[in-house]
Amino acid sequence: MDYFEGGKLKRVLNEGFEVKYNVNEECLRCLGSEGGDCLIDSIDKHVELCYHDDLTDASIASPTVLSSDDKTPWNWKKKLVIGVVSSVLGSFAVVNAIYIFYRHRKNKSFANSNVNSRSFASDFFSKDLERGSQNIGVQHFTYSELEEATNYFDPSKGLGKGGFGTVYFGKLHDGRSVAVKRLYMKNYKRVLEQFMNEVHILARLVHRNLVSLYGCTSRHSRVLILAYEYVSNGTVADHLNGNQAKHGKLSWHIRMNIAVETASALKYLHVSDIIHRDIKTNNILLDTHFHVKVADFGLSRLFPIDHSHVSTAPQGTPGYLDPEYYAHSHLTHKSDVYSFGVVMIELISSLPAVDMTRPRDDINLSTMAMNKIQNQALHELVDPSLGFDTDLKVNEMINAVAELAFRCLQISKDMRPRMDEVFKTLQDIQGAGANESQCEAANISNSHDDIVLCNYDPRPLSPDPNDVKYSTKC
């Protein structure tokens, strides 16, 4: 069937083809005789008969053996044309039947492979979940265990709501504090896909700047629930422009470290062939020492090796969505780079990614930032509390980060840097600023203690891409 690959059959059918066959000379003479039809004797296959049906009494019509003397005039060319046309039509019918069969088989095969590629992970992990999740390294909780841990999903223990569920604070029997995400069940098929996706992604990765998955319920539970490590200090969005935002609370050096650690986590994901697809300040959690934990992998995708992109319907958050991905449905690693560019601008400005109260041209922070940077008006964008106008070193660092963010926010993905380059550049910027940094006292008030950062020393960051190892332990 190789001949029918690559559209060859379609070309043949469109352009036509030539059918060659041999006609016995005796048959030609028969066709030239009026009323003659060329037949083969069923008994003696080698004897050719010329059948005449032009007698007055059809019942006595009889065949005659062909001889070279049969030269009765007749329009034998007409019959020859009929024979040729019949042969061509017969050949065409056979070829067309083969083509239809082949296309049906190919389409069925493609559909099956498409379904299998989409559902393989879910089927595989569903079976593991039914066996207690031992093979994928996450604990299997019952619904009642997590219900009890959250005091029956007490609204007062709510930590936040997302597109796919509500998150509650909980306490397990072993004393661990957990963030319990109870998924909405309005669209079970889609919710199950998000549920299995998070289990699939988080069970195979271990990185200090990625939130850990402790366990989940069975997919047959009355409600699908995920249990993560509890990260107590809210999100970056909370501290920049949310309910924990306070003037001067997040110094530039803390923000710089948030950028570096987030880039470290994204570089690790990309080396692991995973695209997060929903990077935003609401999905970057902070612990009590303001170290990063990237969360929410419900939209994440495993990226096929040796593919330039994944064709998929655009999903993500307005204000962070890669415009090229939105326009062409081509998801790439550079889509995360674009989203992270928006995050860097938020760290510089303390402004939300989308604000409908801003002027029309400034509703999207990315558009606003690109205009300010291009017009050399960065000072109009920077949060005044960061010391941009008073601290030369901070000024240099913010300018460098803004330049990097500008590159990440290019419309064309080919103009954006790779995530490993972004990470390395941020490390260099941070290192240059750290050389002259002094002891910094940040009277950061939270629900427990005041935190003092002196000679702030970030923890070691992402491992070298060549040293990346997967783990199946939470």
TrEMBL record:
Its chief place of residence is: membrane
What the entry lists under SUPFAM superfamilies is as follows: Protein kinase-like (PK-like) (SSF56112)
Bilayer topology: Single-pass membrane protein
Q: Please identify the protein, giving its name as recorded.
A: Protein kinase domain-containing protein
- A Pfam family of the record is Pkinase
Q: Single GO cellular component annotation?
A: plasma membrane
Q: Where does ATP bind?
A: K181
Which compartment or compartments is the protein found in?
A: Membrane
Q: Which residues form the Protein kinase domain?
A: 153-429
The answer to keyword Glycoprotein applying to this record is yes
Q: Which domain of life is it from?
A: Eukaryota
Matches recorded under InterPro entries: Kinase-like_dom_sf, Prot_kinase_dom, Protein_kinase_ATP_BS, Ser/Thr_kinase_AS
Q: What GO molecular function terms would the record report?
A: ATP binding; protein serine/threonine kinase activity
Q: Please state which protein family the record places this protein in.
A: Belongs to the protein kinase superfamily.
**Which residues belong to the signal peptide in this entry?**
none
UniProt keywords (A-Z) are: ATP-binding, Glycoprotein, Kinase, Membrane, Nucleotide-binding, Serine/threonine-protein kinase, Signal, Transferase, Transmembrane, Transmembrane helix
The transmembrane segments are 80-102
